[in-house]
Specification:
The protein contains 10 helices and 7 strands. It is globular.
Length: 259
C-alpha cells in the first residue's frame, strides 16, 4: 500500500461508520477494503492469513461471510463449548438446536435446519450432519456477537454469489469473461428464473454423465422433490441438494467427466 493510498483512506472510525451504515464493502476503495478486513480480524483476535472471512455478493451488496476457520478460531479464543444438542423433525425439515456457553458463563442457542424429504442412506446422514454443523457454527457467531452469515448458509441463498477479492490488494478480481461484462454481471446477479434454469441444466448434465435412464432420473428426482419431471421443480434448494447427491454418486462410481 503506497503512502498516497494511505493518505486517501478515511480515519478508521469514519470508514467503519460508512460500512456499518451502508452495509456494502463495494463502496470502499481496495485499500480501504483491505484495511477494514485486517482491522476486523484484529478486533476479534483472528489470523487474517487463514482467510477467516470471504466476500459475498448479496442483494447487490458486497458483504463478508464467516468460514470454518473463523468459527473454529472464535470457539478457541472465546472458550465456546457446545453444552447440548436437541434434534427434531418438523414437516420433513430436520432441525438441530445447539446450546452454547462461553468462558464467561454466557449462554446462547442457535438452530440448523435442512430438508430431508425423500432422502435415504448416506444422503440423509450427510444432511443431518450438515444441520448439526450449521447449528454449532451459527451459535458460535451469535454468542460472539457477529451478525454475519456462515459458509454453511451461503449455498442455500439463491441470489448469493461468492466474490473473489485479492487478499494482498483488496481489489475485486475481474470475472473470467472480461470481454463480456454484461454476461459477467448476469452471472453475479442472476434472476431466480436464471438460477433455476442453471440448476436444472446441471442436474441434466449429471444424469447424462452417470448414464441414468428415465427411470433412474425420476427415482433420484423423487428423493428430493415431489415432482416426477424436472420441468415441474421450482425449488432451487431441492435441486442443489439433488446436485450434491449426484456428485457424491459420481465420485463413488469413479465416473469420468464432471457433474
Amino acid at each position: 500500500m503506497t503512502t498516497t493510498e494511505m493518505q486517501r483512506i478515511e480515519t478508521p472510525d469514519a470508514m467503519l461508520e460508512r460500512v456499518v451504515v451502508g452495509g456494502d464493502l463495494s463502496k470502499l476503495s481496495p485499500a480501504e477494503r483491505l484495511l477494514y478486513y485486517r482491522q476486523l480480524c484484529a478486533s476479534l483476535g483472528l489470523n487474517p492469513l487463514t482467510r477467516p472471512f470471504q466476500y459475498l455478493s448479496l442483494s447487490g451488496k458486497l458483504v463478508l461471510y464467516a468460514t470454518k476457520d473463523c468459527t473454529e478460531q472464535l470457539r478457541r479464543l472465546r472458550g465456546v463449548s457446545v453444552t447440548g444438542l436437541d434434534d427434531k423433525v418438523i414437516d420433513d425439515i430436520y432441525v438441530v438446536t445447539a446450546l452454547l456457553k462461553d468462558k464467561d458463563g454466557r449462554t446462547d442457542s442457535a438452530i440448523g435446519a435442512v430438508p430431508i424429504a425423500g432422502l435415504r442412506g448416506e444422503a440423509k446422514a450427510n444432511a443431518m450432519m450438515k444441520a448439526e454443523t450449521k447449528s454449532k457454527r451459527r451459535g458460535t457467531l451469535s454468542i460472539c456477537g457477529l451478525g454475519v452469515l456462515d459458509e454453511t448458509e451461503v449455498g442455500s441463498i439463491p441470489d448469493a454469489r461468492v466474490v473473489h477479492v485479492d487478499p494482498e490488494t483488496g481489489e475485486v478480481e475481474a470475472p473470467e469473461r472480461t470481454n463480456a461484462p454484461a454476461e459477467a454481471a448476469a452471472d453475479l446477479f442472476p434472476t431466480p428464473e436464471e438460477e433455476l434454469r442453471k440448476l436444472k441444466a446441471s442436474v441434466q448434465a449429471g444424469w447424462l454423465v452417470l448414464g441414468y435412464d428415465t427411470e433412474k432420473q425420476v427415482k433420484s428426482l423423487k428423493m428430493f422433490t415431489e415432482a416426477s419431471m424436472l420441468d415441474d421443480v421450482s425449488d432451487p434448494a431441492a435441486l442443489s441438494d439433488l446436485l450434491t447427491w449426484l456428485r457424491a454418486e459420481h465420485k463413488k462410481a469413479g465416473k469420468r467427466g464432471t457433474v
